[in-house]
Amino acid sequence: FLRILPDTLREEGGLSNDANDPGGLTKWGVTHLAYDAWRRGHGLARRSVRDMTQTEMEAIYAEGYYRPINGDSLPCGVARVAFDLSVNSGPGRALKYLAATVALASQPVQRIHAISVMRLSFLHGLRTWKFFGRGWAGRVARIEALALMDELSPVQLPVEAALKAARAGSAAKRLARAGHAASATAVTAPVTKAADVAGGAPG
Asked: What confidence tens digit (pLDDT) does each residue in 84-139 have?
């Protein structure tokens, strides 16, 4: 989970309130509505998404977008494309594409490509493509490239263990940053904020 989360966060960006983004105010890709719902579900008082902590953000992504697609059961590269799709367009669509490509379960490279093609086709049909299409296309390509790299050196880290390690101390944080830096050097295309897509994402 922590291996793939930083790259999706990089695509989602920081604090944003784009008038063309139906998600409205977001932080780290989490919309204010998604944040309100998460806090309400955990018996917490409502507050601005601007005040969301990193710990809360990690929990929202794990609970709402990674676990629903059973990310720990997938090869790392497939988990990466499915998770980013889950964030950008909803876990329901990610599960749909995983089911549609189940015949390629033993061929993760081909499955990664098939999911990426289906994802781009869906995005192209959205009315907001004219605003965000270039960014979405770049995002899909970058995530696919990183996913293919994952399959050359696969690493799977169960989400519960990952979250515990991330909070344990600076050593775990340094490892996470090192993994993120290695991924960032592999894909040099500029990052464009991808807005919330119908039906899904935190942002």
From this structure: 999 999 999 999 999 999 999 999 999 999 999 999 999 999 998 998 899 999 99
Degrees, nearest 5: CA angle 148-197-124: 70
pLDDT at 181 over 50: no
pTM, rounded to two decimals: 0.72
C-alpha 186/C-alpha 123 separation (Å) is: 25
Residues in a beta bridge with 16: 26
Task: Tell me the DSSP string of 155-182.
Answer: ----HHHHHHHHHH-HHHHHHHHHHHHH
185/138 Cα distance (integer angstroms): 16
**Under 8 Å CB-to-CB from 16, ≥6 apart: which residues?**
25, 26, 27, 193, 195, 203
Return the closest-CA partner of residue 112 out of 138, 77, 84, 136: 77
